[in-house]
């Protein structure tokens, strides 16, 4: 028995999902985490909203804050057109190691790059170190205490442009009240609220979409 829950999830996927099939990987993570061990993936219900927003945005460059086991990176990457890139930031090296294997097993490794470290260090290095000019879509799913600071950092680093889409998880639970206040009142975002439920739970949660209107 693998020691960590994240390793057990990966083991279950490797033993039961279809290799090279990202939908199968997503479905099996949802099956394991709804039946055996809860884990903080965006999940199937909020995942359908994520899918819809990714499809309507059709992004070329995606930034994800908070990789965890690679569930949402796999979920997003399966929808991206050829030649697009997803850069995902994870500060926990053990989670990054699991995510790397999950993404590889799903067969989306050519689109996904895992950046290990903290967002406050990595975001300012995206242009110089990772050759990013602008990001079209940002999935914010790390620590709600960092949502606002990292959004301001994306603005300051000129990484988001008019039309860039931010989508934030957990704006109700655990909650990101200062982020909601910021994007809804600073005047630079068109916001949409998507009520849903916490992954694998009946607790209320929601996603907030914030489309950048420009500086
Ligand atoms: O989706 C999430 C849920 C939770 C979470 C915490 C405590 C609970 F009791 C339930 C759920 C934490 C998260 N941290 C980072 C990114 N996403 C998260
Ligand atoms: Mg989350």
TrEMBL record:
Any one cellular-component term (Gene Ontology): axon
Domain of life according to the entry: Eukaryota
UniProt-listed Enzyme Commission number(s): 2.1.1.6
Pfam families associated with the record: Methyltransf_3
InterPro entries named in the record: Catechol_O-MeTrfase_euk, SAM-dependent_MTases_sf, SAM_O-MeTrfase
Co-factor binding comment: Binds 1 Mg(2+) ion per subunit.
Gene Ontology terms: biological process: catecholamine catabolic process; developmental process; dopamine metabolic process; methylation
GO MF annotations, alphabetized: catechol O-methyltransferase activity; magnesium ion binding
Gene3D superfamilies named in the record: Vaccinia Virus protein VP39
Keywords of this entry: Catecholamine metabolism, Magnesium, Metal-binding, Methyltransferase, Neurotransmitter degradation, S-adenosyl-L-methionine, Transferase
Binding site for Mg(2+): 141, 169-170
Swiss-Prot/TrEMBL catalytic activity: a catechol + S-adenosyl-L-methionine = a guaiacol + S-adenosyl-L-homocysteine + H(+)
Cofactor(s) required for function per UniProt: Mg(2+)
Cited function: Catalyzes the O-methylation, and thereby the inactivation, of catecholamine neurotransmitters and catechol hormones.
Family designation: Belongs to the class I-like SAM-binding methyltransferase superfamily. Cation-dependent O-methyltransferase family.
Protein name (Swiss-Prot/TrEMBL): Catechol O-methyltransferase
Species this protein is from: Eleutherodactylus coqui (Puerto Rican coqui)
